[in-house]
Write a structure and sequence with these properties.
The protein has eight helices and five strands. The chain is α/β, with parallel strands linked by helices. It has a five-stranded parallel sheet. The protein binds BIS(adenosine)-5'-tetraphosphate.
């Protein structure tokens, strides 16, 4: 199996690039942000709890997202591999993911870490907020809170995978196509190792 993590701060283009990468490599896309937004749209109890946190730019509790990923892995037994987008976002999530994959006899091959400046992140998310209807995108204070949450709790997740020599940094600025090519080149290099 080819299991990849697409990593980076909010607005770094994880969702944008994931769509293209899963189409190219035939992977199953698992985005915790998309899973949470679907719970919100269906007005489930989990969705209501998640919405109040997401609207403030905070992370949803580990147990909630780990449970969602665990059931998504269960319901896709035949997948060729998974592209994890926006997960793991804390050290506890990273350890849980390793354990879940180990139970399936597999592991993370590579973390692709996208690097984008803070001003570019804020400008992209405010632009998306004009049309997306996402309540976490149309307020600069909430966007900055999400970026602060990333530095406080998420950036260290890259250190966890660095210990296993699994992190590749990719410049996340430029056109969508240019970034897709950089990511594809890194994945192709990974596959041939
Ligand atoms: P996510 O849904 O993961 O979203 P994101 O971090 O905001 O964005 P992403 O990086 O995917 O950016 P995108 O491609 O869309 O998280 C939302 C919230 O859910 C979190 O704040 C948290 O509360 C909660 N959550 C999710 N996962 C969690 C977890 N594991 N644990 C706890 N809580 C969790 O791109 C952004 C914009 O930039 C788009 O408009 C796009 O068109 C544009 N763009 C992309 N590439 C571009 C480029 N090259 N040039 C210019 N613009 C570009």
């Amino acid at each position: 199996m080819l299991n990849l993590i697409l990593f980076g701060p909010p607005g770094s283009g994880k969702g944008t690039q994931s769509e293209k990468l899963v189409a190219k490599y035939g992977l199953k896309h698992l985005s915790t942000g998309d899973l949470l937004r679907s719970e919100i749209a269906q007005k489930t109890a989990l969705g209501l709890e998640a919405k109040s946190l997401m609207d403030r730019g905070q992370l949803v509790p580990d147990a909630v997202v780990i449970g969602m990923i665990s059931s998504a892995l269960e319901t896709n037994p035949g997948a060729k591999g998974f592209l994890f987008d926006g997960f793991p976002r804390t050290s506890a999530q990273a350890e849980a993911l390793d354990n879940l994959l180990e139970l399936k006899g597999t592991s993370i091959k590579t973390m692709l870490a996208m690097e984008v400046s803070e001003e570019e992140l804020v400008s992209r998310l405010l632009k998306r907020g004009e049309t997306s209807g996402r309540s976490d995108d149309n307020n600069e204070g909430v966007i900055r809170a999400r970026i602060a949450e990333y530095h406080k709790k998420t950036a260290i997740v890259a250190d966890y995978y660095k210990k296993f020599d699994k992190v590749v940094s990719v410049k996340g600025e430029g056109s969508v196509e240019e970034i897709f090519e950089r990511l594809s080149n890194e994945i192709d290099a990974t596959i041939t190792v």
